[in-house]
Amino acid sequence: MQTKLAADAIPLTKKRTSWIRTIKKYKVMYALLFPALVYFAVFKYIPMAGIIIAFKNYNLALGLWDSPWVGFRNFTDFMNGVYFWDIMRNTIVISLYKLLFGFSAPIILALLLNEVYTQWFKKIVQTITYLPHFLSWVIVYGMMVALLAPGDGLFNMILKEYGVEPISFLTEPAWGRLLIILSEIWKDIGWGAILYLAALAGIDPSLYEAAKIDGASKWRQLWHVTLPGIRGVMILMLILKLSHILDAGFDQIFMFANSFNQEKIDIIDTWVYREGLERLKIGLATAVGLFKAVIGFVLVLAANKLAKKFDGQIW
Q: Taking 70 as the threshold, does the pLDDT of residue 169 lie above it?
């Protein structure tokens, strides 16, 4: 028995010594990593303890620990509510539109800019397209009002000049989702294209030369050289976007929503804001937030597993 314990202790001692030796060897690297670990521990992991609010009937007067436990009642109340399918449908539809058009638009812009050989023109286009990324949604909505207001908006003034009845773009429900998708693309298309332009710059030029020698047209070069060259970045960006599939954009929707178009663009985040902060149903709002996080996590795992077939997985 003593012999066996001694035999088991030897590998443990070796592992501990190896672990300490590794830390000493890469102490500078670990020192650089330490602030990041502290940041994630303090601001990301410790706040996760607040998840227990999702399982309580949280009362501000009683506090976190004295509020009564309610199990999964907050989740069932949310899923059985009359509003559930409306906000889920709006959230999924808007998210899918953003994923479909918002994901492909920067790729198309990067491919087009990659074919521009006049450098000054290319830089001007890049600057013009990525500057809107730095504008807040408050400013963007203000610009929308200036352009689309039914009374003195620029577009409606042009329509009036041609005898067309003005359109209330910002209040008619039919225009709500379209404006959200278009404004999202306009704001982030240039910023998203930067990553793809960097990936395109890394493609070996000899591949294009070989394709030309083989008689490949521009479309063939695009299909067989360019797109495979940026496939890894495309898969990575798609996985990252899938993780936020239910984040349809609180800031943007909050600015665009009003009592007229709310039925078409009200999403989970804006509903949580009203229930959690305005009506102080903090337990219910936390349960919905946890519900979103779990779905996003499952989608990331599924997308990453699927991406392994194309050598583009994150881990």
A: yes
